[in-house]
Amino acid sequence: MSKEKKTGNAGKQKKNSTPRGANPGADVHRGNGGELHQVATGQHPALTTNQGIPIADNQNSLRANPRGPSLLEDFILREKITHFDHERIPERIVHARGTAVHGHFELTKSLAQYTTAKILTEVGEKTPVFTRFSTVAGGAGSVDTPRDVRGFAVKFYTKEGNWDLVSNNIPVFFIQDAIKFPDVVHSVKMEPDRGFPQSATAHDTFWDFISLTPESMHMVMWIMSDRTIPRSLRMIEGFGVHSFRLLNKAGDSTFVKFHWRPKLGLQSTIWDEAVKIAGADPDFHRRDMFEAIEAGDFPEWEFAVQLFTQEQADKFPFDHLDATKLIPEELVPLQVIGRMVLDRWPDNFFAETEQVAYCPANIVPGIDFSNDPLLQGRLFSYLDTQLLRLGSPNFNQIPVNAPKCPFANLQRDGKMQMTQPKGRVAYEPNSLSETAPRETPDRGFPSARVSESGEKGRIRAESFADHYSQARQFYRSQSKYEQAHIASALVFELSKVDHLHVRQAMVAHLRHIEEELAQRVADGLGLGTLPKPAEAAAPVQDFDQSPALQIIGRMKDTLEGRAIGILIADGSDGAIVSDIIKVAAEAGAKVKVVAPKVGGAKLADGTMMEADGQLAGTPSVMFDAIAVVLSDEGVKLLSKESAAIDFVRHAFGHLKAIAADQGGRSLLEQANIEKDKGVLDAKDMKGFIAAAKTRQWEREESVRILA
Ligand code: HDD
């Protein structure tokens, strides 16, 4: 593999200098048309075709004469173009846009009492993992910050085979039965006649389907909450959603739900901020993850389980096999049993992030499935999709998918077979081979011993009929700010729906969740009168509130993983800027200096301060808090620059802490920003750092009309 040269700032290169990486000298020459040729010498290997034939000229196709037609005979051109034409594989029908990182899982507490799975019993053992985060609805090239569920898929390369925990950042799902999956996905994807919207739920077909699917109402509360507009992939939770089983040596089984909890705490953006980030940096989450890994700030999650028995489950006021229900932490507490650290960016995006094939059916001995009908359907779907996507049943041989423990079987042949098995025997039982793989009854995969009986049919259990109680519990458990965000999100989304009857049908559902929410949304939509409540298949129950369902209550008092932007211009006071950089960095924040020119600004003392970002391309949505340090001269210049006014105006509107010196305060005045608790003097560093660790929720009413 070739080693890339570390090059400095391209802007610092002299005009007409040799391009980056090209050594001037005998190995570089210009062709007849002035085109650049780089010739292999020393460290650069020869460029060859896929057949190993050295290529003399990679700049010109074979022509009948210098200005004549190209020749079909040019196998080098044809091979290169043919390969290029085939460089894309079908993107994932859902979760197409993803970001993945290598790392490891370490068990801190053994579950030996419940399971034989080594990954859950060998404390201290580090198991390699490959974790892919994704949005659901958009295509592979869509933006990172739409309102959407985030996928959180972990492949554990255990000693007993691969275990894939294919999770989301929301603990429940839209539907109860896998047979509805194509419908819900078709409804959310771009509408088939017009080809838009990309990556958005705010359109007619989605809400039409949802309004006709009462079982989605709990999920609707989650997707309208700020969970679907996360600040960073490093600040989301992960949930295995379904109940699984753990099996111990005696064959006894215990139900389990799996959870990931981020070390950096939960944090989301404000909707208006998420929209603006999409324009400012479509790769916001991927870049954030990449930069964190590069900087050695390895993201970490706690791994926790909820364990419960069949007897406990029988007493739950909901059916745990229904994927639209969660088990509140207050009912079955979480036990932290391990941690995951992600610390290595893939070498190649396509080879790893794109080709990785997760499958909920990949589990190891000691873990088993439950009867959740959504899970049961998933067990079929993923293998099928990988066969299409990766084109061959041998996709398990791709390095990112291959187990890291020994594996052997008698499956043979197929497209893109990479192994060369020896011998005559590809069947079992056999008497001709002394080395062929054989069964392992003592440690092979066991299924839970469960007896099944009852009437066969397409029948939904009555215990699946309560669609509103947990939706109500979720809504009531939120802080008043989060409730307002849910109401506003519903108004925003339903305002994009052309069909009045769909808007009304949604409000009719909301009446079962919370009358006050239904009224807020109806008012926001200008509905006039409230529609009749939707038909409910089961009485709505009042469950105790579960504060664990909030985000605001789960934010961590830290600046780690957060970013602070300092706006400067010519004449800024360098001592104040240095102070902010020092104190913010000590508090764990990443600090970036933003100036009208990327080359930087000349400070009051005459020294140059380099900028990390140019004002127009580095708006305040990239930061969690901002500081504005300006001279009179700087204010004069920047009050005429809408990007500077927006910089402070948006930070204020997105409820961020702002520190400003005298010049900075003048800019705030130009932007009509009134001082509040989150607007601090640039010298009050203690106050600024404390305010930067959170958002100024009380400010929201003064900047936005919430539903
Ligand atoms: Fe799924 C991908 C998570 C229900 C069918 N799903 C996919 C990914 C995640 C999830 C994280 C991306 C994996 C990656 O990064 O490559 N899916 C879930 C969760 C679900 C769920 C948490 C409910 C609890 N999914 C679900 C159902 C079906 C599918 C009910 C079909 C019956 N999911 C797929 C799929 C995908 C997929 C079509 C697309 C790409 C892929 O599998 O590899 O097979």
From TrEMBL:
Any idea which residues are catalytic in this one?
95, 168
Q: List ligand-binding residues for heme.
A: 92, 132, 181, 378, 382, 389
Alphabetic keyword roster: Heme, Hydrogen peroxide, Iron, Metal-binding, Oxidoreductase, Peroxidase
CDD domains hit by this protein:
GATase1_catalase
SMART domains (alphabetical): Catalase
The superkingdom of the source organism is Bacteria
Give cofactor(s), names only: heme
**Which residues does the UniProt record annotate as the domain Catalase core?**
48-436
Q: Matching Pfam families, A to Z?
A: Catalase, Catalase-rel, Catalase_C
GO MF term (any one):
heme binding
Q: SUPFAM superfamilies, alphabetically?
A: Class I glutamine amidotransferase-like (SSF52317), Heme-dependent catalase-like (SSF56634)
Q: For this UniProt entry, which segments traverse the membrane?
A: none
**Region Disordered: which residues?**
1-37, 418-458
Entry's EC annotation: 1.11.1.6
Question: What GO terms fall under cellular component here?
Answer: cytosol
Q: Name one GO biological process term.
A: response to oxidative stress
Q: Which reaction does it catalyse?
A: 2 H2O2 = O2 + 2 H2O
Free-text function comment from the UniProt entry: Decomposes hydrogen peroxide into water and oxygen; serves to protect cells from the toxic effects of hydrogen peroxide.
Query: Which family is annotated?
Result: Belongs to the catalase family. HPII subfamily.
Q: What is this protein called?
A: Catalase
Source organism of this protein record: Noviherbaspirillum saxi
